[in-house]
Write a structure and sequence with these properties.
With about 140 residues, this protein is an alpha+beta fold. It is about 15% helix and about 45% strand. The protein is built from two helices and nine strands; from the N terminus they run αββαβββββββ. It has helices at about 5-20, 45-50, and strands at about 30, 40, 50-55, 60, 65-75, 80-90, 95-105, 110-120, 125-130. β6 (about 80-90) and β7 (about 95-105) form a beta hairpin.
């Protein structure tokens, strides 16, 4: 049982614990060696653990301003699975100019692969979102 002199300290400790629990978590990013990109996001730790991006994405722009993006990705687990990806393209003000809907990508165990996507019009920047399909159970 706490005596009266320790009560203020106990209250401060419990208040500090409550404040610390409500901090927003940073977004999940894929494992990447040696590249780490804030343009690529995964929906959770399971997909983060099951994939790796070993090299930086290759981004080119054609004479019409269309971005062509190739992201090397590799499964690091010993079974086939499917992930889904969605690409977004932005202008220089970071306003959305184009979005590619969720697309399935079959992944082969421990095999290097790539995700390729293009903007449909001129774009200055891109973002790639990765997720496991709804109802996926490993």
């Amino acid at each position: 049982m706490l005596n009266r002199s320790m009560m203020p300290y106990a209250m401060m400790l419990s208040l500090a614990a409550m404040v610390g629990c409500n901090q927003p978590r940073p977004p999940y990013e894929p494992h990447a060696t040696p590249y780490r990109s804030t343009q690529i996001h995964v929906d959770g730790s399971r997909l983060q653990q099951d994939t790796n991006i070993d090299q930086p994405p290759v981004v080119t722009r054609d004479q019409f301003g269309i971005l062509h993006v190739m992201v090397p990705i590799r499964s690091v687990i010993d079974r086939n699975f499917t992930l889904q990806y969605q690409a977004k393209f932005f202008n220089r003000d970071h306003s959305l100019v184009n979005e590619i809907s969720w697309t399935d990508k079959p992944m082969t165990p421990n095999t290097p692969d790539q995700i390729e996507f293009n903007s449909t019009g001129p774009a200055d920047d891109w973002e790639l979102n990765l997720r496991l399909p709804p109802g996926f159970d490993r």
